[in-house]
Amino acid sequence: MKIILYIIKKEFKQIFRNKGMLPIIFILPVLQLVILSNAATYEIKNIQFGYVDADNSSISRGLIEQFESSTYFNVSEKFPSEKEASQAMQEGTIDAYLNIPTHFERDLQKDKTKDIGVFIDAIDGSAAGVINVYITQIIQNYNKNIVADLIQVSDAVQKPKNIDSIPLFWYNQTLNYKTFMVPGILVLLVTMITLFLSGMNIVREKEIGTLEQINVTPIKKHHFIIGKLFPFWVLGLGLLTIGLILAKVIFNVPMIGNLGLLYVYTAVYILVILGIGLFISNFTDTQQQAMFIAWFFVVIFILMSGLFTPIESMPKWAQILTEFNPVKYFVEIIRMVMLKGSSFNDVFPLAIKTLVYAIVMNGLAVWSYKKTL
Amino acid sequence: MGITISNISKSYGEITALSDISFDVKPGELFGLIGPDGAGKTTLFRILTTLLIADHGQATVAGYDVLNDYKSIRNSVGYMPGRFSLYQDLTVEENLNFFATIFGTTIEENYDLVKDIYVQIEPFKNRRAGKLSGGMKQKLALSCALIHKPKVLFLDEPTTGVDPVSRKEFWEMLKRLQKKGITILVSTPYMDEAALCDRIALIQDGNILEIDTPNAIVSHFPKPLYNISAHNMYNLIESLTNYEHTYSIFPFGEFVHYTDKRHPIDKASLKTYLEFQGLTDIKIEKTQPTIEDTFMELAK
């Protein structure tokens, strides 16, 4: 016990003396949280929008006005023909344009229906999808309004009944993306920092040669490992605390659930990450190698965590792979606890998986740690 | 209670680091392992300190088998690796405390053993180890290797990269430690340090060339040895290399160490030959062989 305590003391001393490391541990994550949470949004604003109005009627102008009044669109210019509009999209000055054909108003009044063309730059596929939804919504709304004007009294009886859907967004009524992104990004920060630091820590002792000296001493390997990793466990929980405070103060993210539960879960979760870090350091000889391998895993963990893309839409094999992704569990649980107020019983199945993961990972890491060269 | 090594072999893939090495170090002996870089010295140290496992052969340290009793060995040996391997960002005192703690002891408990060495670095005890000079680092490393009162001390090239004064001091410290009953196995590429050991083993390419006391090793030198000097060193070496009676030559400071195939040597004809080669200021005098000469001779 005395030995473990002394190693922990020594690790903390080294962490706090490393003038290059301290800002990395504390300031960078804070910056990332603030920057990413403000920047990583799915909302698409300032869409450069053009149009070709060959009809030039009151209805076609009314439609354009709808776009002008939307905060999402910057209606830039009216093109004399489709050719110029297409050219502008080619040059990248507009993201989307609308093509209103001639006799739009006349045909609409006569036939009650008329097609218009919507062209969207799909270089960024997901943005194009969102723009499409916005445009469709505006046109549909406008459609509803003009239908009333167009339909004559005699037709009114035949008017089909519309099904109106009024969405209610539970647990995040205003669909504020920060509410669900901030907890997710917090998970990333805790994971990245603890994985990188723990992964590189023991390798560093290999690199500077101190491990050779340590291995000749009668120190037990679990003493050494616990002593080495405990400081990073504490750091991880410290980071969570800083992150939660920022989430509350800067982003006003709701925290409905029990924070104690979140801490207990995080305590187990960090063990998984430390186990992975130690495992990596057992199979590498330099900090550089450890860093690359840690990066490799972090990128996969992040992209397959359900934070940026829903796991449900991944192919089946990828969904199976995400079962081995600890970040996925943490992202799910932190959102459940903070936004939904889930209780211990709700998170229990996920927490138990995390615990098993922690035991297996640390078991593997301790087993593969060798005191001989 | 010393060290016994019998038929130890170790190879890394195709490369043989040690081939069938056997020797004993007596308890309380200061034993030197002398050889150039890549001779296998560090590999042997790592096997004896239980960091590596040999392919073949047995070894015991302080009476414990390196394979079966490795835990006891780790309690009773001190090891100073060739590379400075203490925590650079911890202070002198913290480093010493750290090693004392993981050996389950305290500085106070074994202070008398490290006192002689530690007092020299004590004025800098709050300085970070990384900021110490080369000689100071060696003293700190030695203190850390001694803090648990080891029975056997392994020093892998402790004086490489250390200035001559610190080297001399370091060897004086080793002599004092030896008097306290500690068995010391030290490796060095410096032949002049070999003379300070009780016995030495000359090692090259994983083979032991010779084991004996420094004096005995020197007396094994097979031929009379001559110092030859002239005004032009390069020409001298060139000329002697082409001389038909040359047995061996190698440059040694301002002289060339020379042995002759003939017995006895014909100094006059050698001198004439050299003069004929255009050399002046030629001096030829008999000299005592050193360990280096013996090593070069054995390594031929």
TrEMBL record, chain A:
Query: Keyword set for this entry?
Result: Cell membrane, Membrane, Transmembrane, Transmembrane helix, Transport
Q: Which segments cross the bilayer?
A: 21-40, 180-203, 229-250, 262-280, 292-311, 347-369
Q: How does it sit in the membrane?
A: Multi-pass membrane protein
Q: Where in the cell is it found?
A: Cell membrane
Entry keyword annotation includes Transport:
yes
* Ranges for domain ABC transmembrane type-2: 128-372
**Which Pfam family is an annotated match for this chain, by its short name?**
ABC2_membrane_3
Q: Does the keyword Transmembrane helix apply?
A: yes
Checking PANTHER family in the record gives: MEMBRANE COMPONENT OF ABC TRANSPORTER YHHJ-RELATED, MULTIDRUG ABC TRANSPORTER PERMEASE YBHS-RELATED
Family recorded in the similarity comment: Belongs to the ABC-2 integral membrane protein family.
* Designated name of the protein: ABC transporter permease
- What is the protein's species of origin? Winogradskyella pelagia
From TrEMBL, chain B:
Q: Which PROSITE patterns match?
A: ABC_TRANSPORTER_1, ABC_TRANSPORTER_2
Key words, A-Z:
ATP-binding, Nodulation, Nucleotide-binding, Transport
Matching entries from Gene3D superfamilies are given as: P-loop containing nucleotide triphosphate hydrolases (3.40.50.300)
Q: Which Pfam families match?
A: ABC_tran (PF00005)
Domain ABC transporter, which positions?
3-230
Residue ranges annotated as transmembrane are: none
Q: What domain of life does the native source organism fall in? A: Bacteria
Under the GO molecular function aspect, what terms does this record hold?
A: ATP binding
* Region forming the signal peptide: none
Similarity section: Belongs to the ABC transporter superfamily.
PANTHER family of this UniProt entry?
A: ABC TRANSPORTER ATP-BINDING PROTEIN, ABC TRANSPORTER ATP-BINDING PROTEIN NATA
What protein is this chain from?
A: ABC transporter ATP-binding protein
Which species is listed as the source?
Answer: Winogradskyella pelagia
Instruction: List the lineage, top down.
Output: Bacteria, Pseudomonadati, Bacteroidota, Flavobacteriia, Flavobacteriales
